[in-house]
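User: I'm curious whether this sequence folds into something compact or stays loose and floppy. Could you predict its structure so I can see for myself?
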Amino acid sequence: MTGQLFRVELRRMVRHPLVWGMAALVLGVQIQLSRGQQPDLTVDPVHATGIASCLAGALLVVASLAVSRDGRHGMPELLAALPGRAEARTRAVLFAAVVVAVVGQAVVVGGYLLVRALSGPAGGRLDVFEPLTALGVGALGAALGVAVGRWARWLIAGPVVVGGLGLLIMFNTDPGSWWLPVMQTHWMDWPDRPSGPHLVYVLALAVLAGLAALLRHGRRPVAMVAAVVALAVAVPAGATAAAVRPAAQFPTGKTLTLGDVDARVRERYFGRDAYRCEQREGVRYCALSDYASWIPLWAGVVAPIVRAMPPSARDRVPVVKQYTSSWSYTYEDGVAIAPMAWGTDDQRRLLAQFLAFDIGGFDKACSAHGQARVVVALWLMGQSSTISRPGYLYMDGRMAARSGVDFGDTEVGYAKLLLQSPGARERVWANWDALMRPATTVEQALPLLGLPQRYPTSKPKGTPCR
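Assistant: Here's the prediction. I'll summarize afterward.
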């Protein structure tokens, strides 16, 4: 009898429009959100698990409605004449919901990760426990839906539970809240998450929820013992995950040093084997070991800038090195910073601007208004990126520790004219030494660059660059 009911419930759930509609929506939204970014195996599975919890929520509602069906619209009287028991119906809905949830999560998360893997060189390191957690969350949602449907027969009960859990997960910003089934707060330059214990915790919760649904029909010894065992697994697993110290919590009001960094961070990002370096067209690139596959992409931005420089000056090209924005106080001078994420125009512009301004000799926050070398630096930047204001450098959406160089519309305007001027490279090469002197003004450089005077004189603002 349970087997037949299971097949019936399975067919009903597979055909339910909320299930396949939510699966398609989740997959489409996640692909759209990551469009244009290089795949990162460190964060992509975390993001996929987070948004796939929407599908788990849909299964929770569907399962709660399915299991409470026999208590609505005169169904109790009709079912009382049948040989099947309520416990058999609960078991059938539970098994069917869990199967559909796990398969649905596997399709959504697996499909997303496959699309990401095919979209370009992947950086980061895959933690296999992360996508498995998505399957566990699906099973938890299905089992919890059956329990809610049996213990709270109101039709609104399932959506209320989904809404409550959704708000807790969505608005949680504490990276140490591992008692939640889903932890979306993570950044690519943080240490590994306690994903293994958390997966065990989620699976134990799923078993507890399923047993809670079955215990609605009576306290069976086997179910009681299984519930105790599941609880004995869930509590220490959750405590183990929650005990892991958040990665980015540091004391304020003091100058941070490498000694203040978590030991996991020191080993992964500052240890002896933290970087892999390559030499390409005379430029040295150093990427964190899990991101070496992105070096050719950085070279696509750097190479046009280097080729625009006179050969005699290419010894000024700094090392291109990847840094984490979370530990930005460890930046080195004379290094062009490659960001942790890659793919958007802003990230390309970030690298191009860091490189061009390092070549121009700008190594600290200052005012470059009226200096010829900032026009040349912007012209170099324009070889592989767009030129924009203000001149402050951003990393991953946050202000980097090393602020940028301030300049104005006058310098931007002349740099764009230079980009459109035939023979600009030859004139820059011929007058490189004069153009790169801090004392050379924009007005003095215009005849050297073959540009007409079109914009007003730019006045220094703040501390001039030296």
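Summary: The CA atoms of residues 45 and 131 lie 6 Å apart. The chain has a mean pLDDT of 85.
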